[in-house]
UniProtKB/TrEMBL annotation:
GO terms for molecular function: molybdopterin synthase activity. It is an enzyme of class 2 (transferase). GO terms for biological process: Mo-molybdopterin cofactor biosynthetic process. The keyword Ribonucleoprotein does not apply. It comes from Halopseudomonas sabulinigri. Residues 128-141 have a biased composition (Basic and acidic residues). The gene is moaE. Residues 128-151 are annotated as: Disordered. Transmembrane segments: none annotated. This is Molybdopterin synthase catalytic subunit. Its EC number is 2.8.1.12.
Length: 151
């Protein structure tokens, strides 16, 4: 399991390939990459600033990944999230999972992203032609999270 929070741009393909590595028991690898858009909520976006609490953020991401690993039969989880100044077109986040079977890898990746969007301590500020604005949480993210409640 690898969790990284950094300012530098990363190559999602490298992260995806690390999930398989030399583990011949891996039958499925899934990956999700989130990118900075140049348009959001009807406004042009020139850039984004992501803030976090060092130490606390990594611990929260580790806990989310461990919850996924406890819930599904995973062989590996890779999660990288950027902070600082980001430009449109750049990757923000990569979440990937490796497992023997695709269902576990798909479910774990979705679970991690849903929890990351709603529970990880990140704050986004977009720069638009109208000025800067903080990006508020979306109701749809909370709704997506609700599907993972224990039943």
């Amino acid at each position: 399991m690898r969790i990284v929070v950094q300012e530098a741009v990363f190559d999602p393909g490298e992260w995806l390939n690390r999930l398989h590595g030399d583990n011949r028991g891996t039958g499925a690898v899934t990956g999700f990459v989130g990118y900075v858009r140049d348009y959001n909520d009807g406004k042009d976006v020139a850039g984004m600033w992501l803030e976090h609490y060092p130490g606390m953020t990594e611990k929260a991401l580790q806990t989310i990944a461990e919850q996924a690993a406890a819930r599904w039969a995973l062989l590996d989880v890779q999660l990288i999230h950027r902070v600082g100044q980001l430009e449109p077109g750049e990757p923000i986040v990569f979440v990937g999972a490796a497992s023997a079977h695709r269902q576990d890898a798909f479910a774990a990746t979705e679970f991690i992203m849903d929890y990351l969007k709603t529970r990880a301590p990140f704050w986004k500020r977009e720069t638009t032609p109208q000025g800067e604005r903080w990006v508020e949480a979306r109701d749809s993210d909370e709704q997506a999270l609700s599907r993972w409640s224990e039943s």
